[in-house]
């Protein structure tokens, strides 16, 4: 097995009464160290199920998931939970409203025994500064922060355990366009600074274009297409990928021409 993270012939089947629902169907791909792999698709495409299996929330029904060449157990060890962290879509629901920002950031330091106990408050302050927030924010409650500030705290919490891979599940979809751009810029800077690896879950290809190295396109639990971001946008091979790209808001003449060409190709194929 190659890559920092490797999925081989992974499927996930859920049982609903007498029915079986195949949410992910025989999927294989690698996530290379230091890259940002975007997993894109519409609602129900299986992308969030993939994220939950990577995190160990769901075990695969079939196939294997390996970390640095070793198959991950269904029940993850503490070292695996430390290495693979999550940033959720809604930062308000992901942060405990009864804990201060500082308490939320200190928790992973305590759980994983990171740093001296007496110096963990200093580490919390440095984490906040690293994501562009003043250290004194550690005394605030999540409710006192804006949406963008809360998402920065959620990112800081994912970094607190000194993780190697961060799963970002629609991390900017709840933010307005300006705040979204600032958070994406922060994620890119942190990736360069820390050598992080991202799995970026989203339905928004306009976001993917600005942050991802490669794109995996999912539809109905199946991996339809996988390639570099440049190749996916310049010459998508699958009809579903072409439809997704054709729906991206157009901002340049070149994109107008691409959208027209993709739509003409699909109409001709139909």
Summarize the SSE layout with pairings:
Blueprint: E1 5-16, E2 19-31, E3 36-40, H1 47-55, E4 62-67, E5 70-71, H2 78-83, E6 84-87, H3 91-94, H4 101-112, H5 120-130, H6 147-160, E7 165-169, H7 177-194, E8 197-202, H8 205-211, E9 214-219, E10 222-228, H9 229-234, H10 239-246, H11 253-269
Parallel strand pairs: 3-8, 3-9, 6-7, 7-8
Antiparallel strand pairs: 1-2, 1-4, 4-5, 9-10
GO molecular function: ATP binding; ATP hydrolysis activity
Organism: Nitratireductor arenosus
Protein name: ATP-binding cassette domain-containing protein
Summarize it:
The protein has helices at 47-55, 78-83, 91-94, 101-112, 120-130, 147-160, 177-194, 205-211, 229-234, 239-246, 253-269; strands spanning 5-16, 19-31, 36-40, 62-67, 70-71, 84-87, 165-169, 197-202, 214-219, 222-228.
Account of the 3D structure:
The protein is α/β, with parallel strands linked by helices and 270 residues long. It has one domain: P-loop containing nucleotide triphosphate hydrolases (Rossmann fold). It is 41% helix and 24% strand. It is built from eleven helices and ten strands. Strands 6-7-8-3-9-10 form a six-stranded mixed sheet, with helices on both faces. The radius of gyration is 20 Å and the shape is globular. The mean pLDDT is 90. Residues 5-245 form the ABC transporter domain. This is ATP-binding cassette domain-containing protein. One of its GO terms (biological process) is transmembrane transport.
């Amino acid at each position: 097995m190659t890559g920092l993270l490797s999925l081989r012939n992974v499927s996930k089947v859920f049982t609903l009464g007498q029915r079986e629902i195949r949410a992910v169907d025989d999927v294989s791909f690698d996530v290379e160290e230091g890259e940002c792999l975007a997993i894109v698709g519409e609602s129900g495409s299986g992308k969030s199920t993939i994220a939950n299996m990577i995190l160990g929330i769901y075990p695969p029904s079939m196939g294997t998931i390996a970390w640095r060449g070793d198959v991950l157990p269904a029940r993850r060890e503490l070292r695996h939970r430390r290495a693979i962290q999550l940033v959720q879509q809604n930062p308000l629901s992901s942060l405990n409203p009864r804990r201060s920002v500082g308490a939320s950031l200190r928790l992973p330091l305590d759980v994983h025994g990171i740093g001296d106990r007496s110096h963990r408050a200093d580490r919390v302050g440095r984490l906040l500064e690293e994501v562009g927030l003043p250290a004194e924010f550690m005394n605030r409650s999540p409710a006192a922060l804006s949406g963008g500030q809360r998402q920065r705290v959620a990112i800081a919490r994912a970094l607190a355990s000194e993780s190697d891979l961060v799963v970002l599940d629609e991390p900017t979809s709840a933010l307005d366009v300006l705040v979204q751009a600032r958070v994406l810029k922060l994620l890119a800077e942190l990736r360069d600074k820390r050598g992080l690896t991202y799995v970026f879950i989203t339905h928004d290809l306009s976001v993917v274009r600005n942050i991802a190295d490669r794109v995996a396109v999912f539809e109905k639990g199946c991996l339809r297409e996988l390639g570099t971001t440049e190749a996916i946008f310049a010459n998508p091979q699958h009809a579903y990928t072409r439809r997704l790209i054709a729906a991206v808001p157009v901002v340049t003449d070149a994109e107008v021409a691409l959208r027209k060409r993709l739509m003409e190709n699909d109409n001709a194929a139909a």
